[in-house]
Design a protein that fits this description.
By secondary structure, the protein is an alpha/beta fold. It has seven helices and seven strands. A seven-stranded parallel sheet has the order 3-2-1-4-5-6-7, with helices on both faces. The protein is globular.
């Protein structure tokens, strides 16, 4: 059976997910764009040259049935080469004011949602091998934003464990961990001069990253197919995490 050319990208409607979907499509992959609204890429106008390679599929990152159905639809044409688990949420709140429900919601969407998507992708990948890229965060090694940091540290652990367990099935599992990247999530912060001054001082390269930069790292993993690389976290943070 020939290797599939289809990659599923969760949270593909905007930001990093949108950039990843477009970059993969630009490199010739067929991309299943999974999002809650099921409208595919929404934040930019799609280049006509890649439009036919982007398939919009509705998806709920916290619902097992929805995840299974969406990945089944993505694989229906020619199977599945891989999945990029980008769907997630981010907010911050002092730990002393955080409810159990707050903490559980962050873990449910970011950590459990990632695990479930990996698990549901597994049956599609195990026959011919494939690639899983989880989108983590450099917060996984910081002492800030306890629920978010914990959820992304869990994504790193999930990546390592699945990389070992599924290596014999020729499935490679990676964790790409962005730092401060200019997205809708931090649009308000980017209007704050104090925040931007902090970025220039704290990030060694002196600027925010762009979604397209993260997308190129993710797409390179699929394009290069380095079988000896698995289980690692690749930080895309301008040196911020090691420069603190």
């Amino acid at each position: 059976m020939r290797q599939s050319n289809t990659v599923a990208v969760t949270g593909a409607s905007r930001g990093i997910g949108s950039a990843v979907a477009r970059e993969l499509a630009g490199r010739g992959f067929r991309v299943a764009c999974l999002s809650r609204k099921g409208k595919g890429v929404e934040d930019v106008e799609i280049d006509a040259a890649i439009k036919d390679r982007l398939i919009a599929i509705p998806f709920d990152a916290t619902d097992e049935g929805s995840i299974r159905e969406a990945l089944g639809a993505a694989a229906a044409s020619d199977g599945l080469l891989g999945i990029v688990n980008n769907a997630g949420i981010h907010w911050t709140k002092p730990a002393a004011e955080m409810s159990a429900a707050d903490f559980q919601e962050m873990m449910r969407v970011n950590a459990l949602g990632t695990f479930l998507a990996c698990r549901e992708a597994y049956p599609h990948l195990k026959e011919n091998g494939g690639i899983i890229v989880n989108i983590g965060s450099y917060y996984d090694r910081l002492g800030d934003s306890v629920a978010y940091a914990a959820s992304k540290a869990a994504v790193g652990a999930i990546t390592r464990c699945l990389a070992i367990e599924w290596a014999r099935d020729n499935i490679r599992v990676h964790n790409v961990a962005p730092g401060f990247v200019a997205t809708d999530m931090n649009r308000a912060f980017r209007k704050d001069d104090r925040f931007m001054a902090y970025v220039q001082q704290a990030v060694p390269v002196g600027k925010l990253g762009q979604p397209e930069e993260v997308a190129r790292v993710v797409a390179a993993i699929f394009s290069e197919r380095i079988d000896f690389l698995t289980g690692e976290t690749i930080y895309v943070d301008g040196g911020h995490g090691i420069g603190l």
